[in-house]
């Protein structure tokens, strides 16, 4: 096995773990309200610090990855997030709980700028690599409620943090043993050629502005939707009867749809300009309208459609950064992108908690998200259309006729 394949394998596994740990609490909290004698909204608000740190920590993490070592940062990620989860599992007060959740966010912020930057350096085809990496992250989102619901139901809420915490520490030690600094830092033959080619400054500026607009809207939607969905299903689907395992299973089934979205989007990004892949995202607005008032079958179909578009957007945004940044700056650019995206979680958590306390059953939440999603078509209009993008992950130069920007 070439060392790049080994590195990519660990990177993909870390993506699974990163999203899984960030979403353990939104499901576990359903069983913690009685223990801590606080309402759902009050308990959920304790996760605000972790989600803020998840976003804001991306920029310094990207800087350290570029200047210090991406491999060492990933080792810190594994051990740090595991130790933080153990702290949450041992919590005896809301302050201890909030501290542990915040520390999970701090260490979780390492993965995206560092891991995605390292992935692109070792990838042969960007769209396919980012798509498959997205699948692993999506599976982390999908399995988090299932794993949490199962552990809570059988062993109690503490096990939902203690068991994964110990396992991720062991995974980090395995990564440190198997992948050397040289293997992580040096891409294999034919890899690492995804650095941005000579792009006119005006086109580059349009791409970055379009990315920023789409990332802000997509980040708010991603975080609010993934945090709120367990509670939405718990309230809107009568047949679940409040069973934590069934809620987790249903959430996992919906999020698994995102895996297909990211694979299909990754293949499309290797075959057509990015702008063409952005246009379907405008369907998020009507689907959010259906989520606002839908129940049972209508809500499930809307949730499935939204999941597809939300995770397709993640793959598109990561590919934009890969094709419009250089190897030397890539982790820092990814850091800036994730500050915007996951920084929105600092708004999403209190927004979800506030919407639920209004007594409208998340109607306000989905209407606000629908309004924010109107930014997506705006960002798509700004983004340039460059046919030569589909050549940026290959070793050959694009035909001369494709180098002109239309």
From TrEMBL:
<dbReference type="GO" id="GO:0005886">
    <property type="term" value="C:plasma membrane"/>
</dbReference>
<feature type="transmembrane region" description="Helical">
    <location>
        <begin position="43"/>
        <end position="63"/>
    </location>
</feature>
<feature type="transmembrane region" description="Helical">
    <location>
        <begin position="276"/>
        <end position="294"/>
    </location>
</feature>
<feature type="transmembrane region" description="Helical">
    <location>
        <begin position="104"/>
        <end position="123"/>
    </location>
</feature>
<protein>
    <submittedName>
        <fullName>MFS transporter</fullName>
    </submittedName>
</protein>
<dbReference type="InterPro" id="IPR050171">
    <property type="entry name" value="MFS_Transporters"/>
</dbReference>
<feature type="transmembrane region" description="Helical">
    <location>
        <begin position="300"/>
        <end position="322"/>
    </location>
</feature>
<feature type="transmembrane region" description="Helical">
    <location>
        <begin position="245"/>
        <end position="264"/>
    </location>
</feature>
<keyword id="KW-0812">Transmembrane</keyword>
<feature type="transmembrane region" description="Helical">
    <location>
        <begin position="75"/>
        <end position="98"/>
    </location>
</feature>
<feature type="transmembrane region" description="Helical">
    <location>
        <begin position="203"/>
        <end position="225"/>
    </location>
</feature>
<feature type="transmembrane region" description="Helical">
    <location>
        <begin position="161"/>
        <end position="182"/>
    </location>
</feature>
<feature type="transmembrane region" description="Helical">
    <location>
        <begin position="361"/>
        <end position="383"/>
    </location>
</feature>
<feature type="transmembrane region" description="Helical">
    <location>
        <begin position="7"/>
        <end position="31"/>
    </location>
</feature>
<feature type="domain" description="Major facilitator superfamily (MFS) profile">
    <location>
        <begin position="7"/>
        <end position="388"/>
    </location>
</feature>
<feature type="transmembrane region" description="Helical">
    <location>
        <begin position="135"/>
        <end position="155"/>
    </location>
</feature>
<keyword id="KW-0472">Membrane</keyword>
<dbReference type="InterPro" id="IPR036259">
    <property type="entry name" value="MFS_trans_sf"/>
</dbReference>
<dbReference type="InterPro" id="IPR020846">
    <property type="entry name" value="MFS_dom"/>
</dbReference>
<feature type="transmembrane region" description="Helical">
    <location>
        <begin position="334"/>
        <end position="355"/>
    </location>
</feature>
<keyword id="KW-0813">Transport</keyword>
<keyword id="KW-1133">Transmembrane helix</keyword>
<dbReference type="GO" id="GO:0022857">
    <property type="term" value="F:transmembrane transporter activity"/>
</dbReference>
<keyword id="KW-1003">Cell membrane</keyword>
<dbReference type="InterPro" id="IPR011701">
    <property type="entry name" value="MFS"/>
</dbReference>
<dbReference type="Pfam" id="PF07690">
    <property type="entry name" value="MFS_1"/>
</dbReference>
